[in-house]
User: What shape does this take?
Amino acid sequence: MARTAQGAHLLITGAAGGMGRMYAQRAVDEGAASVVLWDRDAPALARTADELGAIARGRTLVRSYAVDVSELGAIAKTAHKVRRDVGDPDVLINNAGIVRGNRYFWESHAGEDVRPTMLVNALAPMYVAHEFLPAMIASDRPSRIVNIGSAAGTLGNPRMAVYAASKAALNGWSDSLRLELEQAGHDHVRVTTVTPSYIATGMFHGVRGPLLAPILEPEVVVDRVWKAMLAGQALVEMPGTVRLGRFLRAVLPTRTFDRIIGHGFGVYRSMEEFRGRD
Assistant: This one.
């Protein structure tokens, strides 16, 4: 793919604000042909679309669609509208996500925590990708799928069992999809899996960054992910201690890892004061 998104067609979920909006603005700034924004927050989505449209000044087509990706049937309906109105994207950024935490699994209610978390974080990216992959494969244009996973999907952590499960599912599916595309010879479609630690977006308001894993600034993450997407990089781990943690989890006995890394480095206490967004 080119060194910028100029001329590309992008679709971004969770695009009304936060990092989703940052990805969209990056696309507009680089002269993308079109940027399609999905989010369930219709008022915020409309404001973002208007603001980005003003920045684009006609150079980039900006379209927004209010859709709750936890409603899996709505994904297919909205994808049909996108194909009718704009066409298929050649870059998909599965950015939408939710987190519920600061209580133990048995204290949560399945309908309140488990179902929506698994739907938004794990199932929705699969359904969205499934809608647009056939056109990506059939096209001769370089195509990209970026799946925003989490370091939580690589390492268990108290008070976020459901979130960790949803991101473990996303991480595993994303990398398997990458391998399937390579095995099938569709080398022009690249998949990037992103596994960051905590990011200062408000989504994890109140968390405490463990030792050697400071809370990441969203601008830094967006820049790193964007460059990896353009390059077709398979995996983005931020900070580097995420990779170190995976290595140590594999080589150390479980109780030794718990004692030294989990408790000693404060990983297992990081969610104790989590509040999230209001």
Observations:
- The domain at 9-269 is CATH 3.40.50.720 (Rossmann fold).
